[in-house]
Amino acid sequence: MTCVVKCWHFAFLFFTPILVFSQQTDTLKSDRLKEVVIQTTRTGSNSPIPHTNFKAEQIEQNLQAQDIPMLLSSVPSLVESSDAGSGIGYTGLRIRGSDPTRVNVTINGVPLNDSESQGMYWVDLPDLAASASEIQVQRGVGNSTHGAGAFGATVNIDLSNIDADPEAVVSSTIGSFGTRKLSAKTGTGLMNGRWHFSGRASLIHSDGYIDRASADLQSLHLSAAMLRDRQSLQVHLLSGKEITYQAWNGVPSQYVNDEVLRTFNTAGIEQPGGPYKDEVDNYSQQHLLGHYKLLLNSGLSLQVNGHYTKGAGYYEQYKAAQFYGDYGFTPWRIADTSISNTDLVRRLWLDNDFYGGTFALRWQAVKGTDLMLGGGLNRYDGNHFGEVIWTENPVGVPKDFEYYRNTAEKLDGNVFVKLEQKVSEKFRGFVDLQARIVEYTFQGFDLALNPTDQSVRHLFFNPKLGATYSISDKWTGYGYFGIAHREPNRDDYTQSSPDSRPKSEQLADTELGIRLVKEDYQFSANLFWMQYWNQLALDGQINKVGAYIRTNIPDSYRAGVELEGSTSLNQRLSLHGNLALSQNKVKSFTEFIDNWDTWEQETVVHTNTDLAFSPGVIANAGIMATIWGKQLQSSEFAQQITVSLSGKYVGKQYLDNTSNDLTSLPAYFTSDLRLNMDFTGIIGKKISLILALNNWLDAKYSANGWTYRYISGLYDARADDPYAAVESGDVYHLAGYFPQAGRNWMATVKITF
User: Which of 93, 324, 348 is nearest to 246 (CA)?
Assistant: First the structure.
């Protein structure tokens, strides 16, 4: 049994006696329980920052086995995708066309994005939403936050809620593609008005929609809290373990529209006789979070947070006909024949540590004034190394031979001042000033193209200001302006020399909007203009060390409008929807295309093209009907049955910045049906059933992909490479797509004690 399962058993043995035999609980759901952790990165309901909140009740209505990007599908301007096509395993999201490396994610204000790639790997913390009391998505630059700069959005996940009453929940899910999930959590309630303990453990498996794209996921979350009159302490331990069969290559362009071959997975097929069974990503991650809050005199409160993350794992690959010299092996001879290559299996390892602290000092002594001083300092230590664990021709190859190793260190510090001021009964303003310093030490190439230890430093100033104006008791207008910076990622540095390194990215974000809030309906309209300087993008260019690199695009922008609305037609019927219309343009950039005949590159200048993965239209709509409902006077739970129908339209997206229709993702529409049933008085406090029919119209679509363009007049690769396609004349491209599952189902039963 794994450590996670053992910890699960320990959690039940430890927490259940407390849950059953605790005699004293504090049932007062007071305001002090709502803010055990100061959410410095969170924004409020009156903020000029466009945002969406998902409360715990809303998460529970949708939570089955799929990951957070799928749960957030209804957020305006958001496009979700899944490598395996099932929503389990490697999943991702883009907001306003910004990829996961440009979406800042925090847990209780602690940065979660990978320090080097700046990406977010949801698979490392499976079933995280089951622990969340709220998830907030801020679009655009948003508030000052810890970690990498937010260019598309900020996702804040709040785990700090403390339930006053004891509770235990067991849930089980089954579904298409061999999906199954078992989860259990328990909490003691607030004992003696001071102590609280909780635990959750989850096991998830899916075979995946794509061939062999299986996922075996385990997670554990333990927490403890101590409350006093003027102070609190909360500690979280989160552990995640994932083993996923690789589906990163995408389905070849020649197969994606074939009903039989659209699930074909090229990972592992270099092994003769059948796919390599261990072509997997195997990674574990543990997070320790600590939050101490102290209420001082004169309206002051202080919070200090500490965190430590340990990650370790590898991805394994079968590679055919590899040259000995590329791995540091010496060729060997049989008779008079020199053997220079071999089939082999390799593991590429990452062993890293991320740790640091943040603080927030808040002053609210004067009515209408909220002043905060905060900051943080985080350090990342990463070890990258590769091992050859098997070779077809093993002569002269040591067991588990390590053929490369390099290290990286990153120091990330910031300090900010935030002031929210009520100027009058109608007018409120805020100012948010942040300074951020980044130091990164790594192994790269010097000017002579020799590998050597190097370092870079960035100092960023990120000012933000905004205001809201109450036009009436129902209408509010707002405006926001913010500047953000982002440093290049690890590959940008390691695959370049000092004179070819890209510059940091800069974004100026302007938001103008209006909100209408009434008891039975809400509406908002938000205009945005996001002006980029030096945005990093692949353009086909090869640098001096022979690597394809991202280069700076001097001038690009995103501009659009986001409309949101919801209404309750009566007590049993409600509607909601949003529409995002945008233009996402590169004013000018040069594409570099490999010429396979001359071994040189040719250039094409493009003007006023669309930014990659940036659909001009994204629309969501949904209707929920309560077909049977009864509120019990003696219980806080409602007995009811609801039916929900939702639909989503995503416009055409391009795989690169060329606006080439031959390398694009066609527009698609998908719709889901969900039945929620909640009953009391049967088992425990409540039994809940969720039956979901996802993509019930069986749409055939892809939500992600990649492309590489080249010129070849002497060789047509289409017969040998299913990724290859012709564009015109001697111009070809390779392209891979990530099809999402057609009609599929999922069923969940949850019992609350």
Answer: 348
Q: How many CA atoms lie within 13 A of 647 on its CB side?
A: 10
Residue 400 Cα to chain centre, angstroms: 33
User: Rounded to the nearest 5°, which phi and psi values hold at 124?
Assistant: -75, -20
CA distance 37 to 304: 9
CB-based contact 502:458 (threshold 8 Å): no
Comparing CA positions, the residue from 149, 42, 51, 139 lying closest to residue 102 is 149
Give the span between the Cα atoms of 89 and 553, in whole angstroms: 33
Among 235-239, 248-252, 521-525, 627-631, the range scoring the smallest mean pLDDT is 627-631
The 3-class secondary structure across 51-64, one letter per residue, is EEEEEHHHHHHHCC
CB–CB of 734/707 below 8 Å?
Answer: yes
CA distances from 383 to 284, 312, 353, 410, 468 (A): 15, 9, 9, 12, 47
Report the 10 Å Cβ neighbour count for 715.
12
Residue 15: pLDDT band (50, 70, 90) is very low
Adjacent-strand bridge partners of 93: 80
Domain residue limits at 449: 3-716+724-752
CA 608 to chain centre: 29
**What token pair was written down for 495?**
């695959």
Average pLDDT over residues 83-96: 96
> Does an H or E element contain 44, and which?
none
**Entry pTM:** 0.92
Q: For 383-414, what is each residue's pLDDT tens digit?
A: 999 999 999 877 767 888 999 998 999 999 99
Compute the chain's Rg from CA coordinates: 27
**Local structure of 242: helix, strand or coil:** strand
CATH of residue 574: 2.40.170.20
* Beta strand pairing call for 195-206 and 179-187: antiparallel
Work out how many domains the chain is built from and give that number: 1
Token digits of residue 212 = 């062999």
Measured between alpha carbons, how far is 199 from 12 in angstroms, rounded to an integer? Answer: 8
pLDDT 10s digits, 432-487: 999 999 999 988 776 666 778 889 999 999 999 999 999 999 999 999 999 999 99
Which tens digit of pLDDT belongs to each residue from 492-514?
888 877 877 889 999 999 999 99
For 282, counting Cβ atoms within 10 Å of its Cβ (0-12 exposed, 13-18 middle, 19+ buried), the class is: middle
Q: Specify whether the CB–CB gap between 239 and 10 falls below 8 A.
A: no
CB 221 within 8 A of CB 228: no
Total residues found in the chain within this entry: 753
d(CA 340, CA 333): 9
Distance, CA of 201 to CA of 169 (rounded, Å): 11
Measured distance CA(252)–CA(273) in Å, rounded: 20
Output phi, psi for 94, to 5 deg: -125, 140
Mean of the pLDDT values across residues 595-611?
Answer: 95
The backbone torsions φ and ψ at residue 59, rounded to the nearest 5 degrees and listed phi first, read -65, -45
Instruction: Please list, in sequence order, all residues whose beta carbon lies within 8 angstroms of the beta carbon of residue 272, skipping any fewer than 6 positions away.
Output: 320, 343
Tokens of 431: 């100012």
pLDDT in tens, 138-148: 999 998 888 87
Instruction: Answer whether 286's CB lies under 8 Å from 237's CB.
Output: yes
Q: Do the beta carbons of residue 84 and residue 209 sit within 8 Å?
A: yes
CA angle 121–552–143, rounded 5-degree value: 50
Place of tokens 């598309």: 152
Q: Are 232 and 288 contacting, i.e. CB atoms less than 8 angstroms apart?
A: no
**pLDDT tens digits, one per residue of 338-358:** 778 889 999 999 999 999 999
Task: Please tell me what DSSP assigns to residue 191.
Answer: B
The whole-number average pLDDT for the span 250-277 is 97
**211, 183, 204: which is closest to 88 by C-alpha?**
204
Contact between residue 141 and residue 133 where contact means Cβ atoms under 8 Å apart: no
CB-based contacts of 267, cutoff 8 Å, min separation 6: 212, 245, 246, 247, 248, 249, 275, 279
